[in-house]
Amino acid sequence: MTRPYAPGYGIPTDLLLKAYASGVFPMAESATDPEVFWVRPEARGVIPLDAFHVPHSLAKTIRQGRFEIRIDSDFEGTIDACGEKRSGRLSTWINGPIREAYTRLHRIGHAHSVEAWREGRLVGGLYGVRLGSAFFGESMFSRETDSSKVCLVHLVERLRERKFVLLDTQFTTDHLKRFGAVDVPRDRYEKMLAAALTSEAVFYP
Questions:
Q1: Domain 2-196 belongs to what topology?
Q2: Are strands 121-131 and 111-118 parallel, antiparallel or unpaired?
Q3: pLDDT for 18-30, tens place per residue?
């Protein structure tokens, strides 16, 4: 399903939150495409919070304290960085309407960023949507080795501490499978989502 967007027109906030509550999320064909389409995958990527795995080499990096981790310090900078072209990825699905919509979600407390900083520079991060006791990971970026991975570890720690029950990754990748990500059939995922929406978890502060 697609819907065109005129310049300056965004995805309505209430529609976006209802979509997430129904197991649907928006994407775009490219950063320059003014339209979005709505996705409801047959299989959904999920990282079970009680089965999250931290690779040994990454645990060593975390112990070294190479990065300063901040929460919601620069959400817009994070989403912009996630939309940058970089080696191995020449296009992005984060277009104008999506950037605008998630920035509005952030302002009302439904979207958050976990950021890695080094020497005063934003060098890695991720962002996602919080609804009920579910967190929907949207995108991540790295400007330095392991920076986004460290952010993922901090995200999971935060979700566990604050009694979240669902970490949605939309899809699985070989990268995410190293951390324990699995594919969940749509009907099972929607039951997990419904359960997560029966309670409210606070991400920040």
A1: Aminopeptidase (3.40.630)
A2: antiparallel
A3: 999 999 999 999 8
Strand order across the 36-39 sheet = 2-3, 36-39, 25-27
Q: Rounded to whole angstroms, how far apart are CA atoms 190 and 196?
A: 10
pTM, two decimals, is: 0.92
Which sequence spans correspond to the domains of the chain?
2-196
Among 26-35, 100-109, 129-138, 188-197, whose mean pLDDT is lowest? 26-35
Evaluate whether 28 touches 98 at the Cβ level (below 8 Å): yes
What whole-number distance in Å separates Cα of residue 123 and Cα of residue 84? Answer: 13
Angle between helices 75-82 and 96-107 (to 10 degrees): 150
Sign, CA dihedral 55-173-45-4, equals positive
Give the separation between CA 93 and CA 12, rounded to whole angstroms: 18
Answer whether 104's CB lies under 8 Å from 79's CB.
no
CA distances to 22, 26, 69, 105 from 15, rounded to whole Å, are 10, 11, 32, 11
For 165-196, write each residue's pLDDT tens digit. 999 999 999 999 999 999 999 999 999 999 99
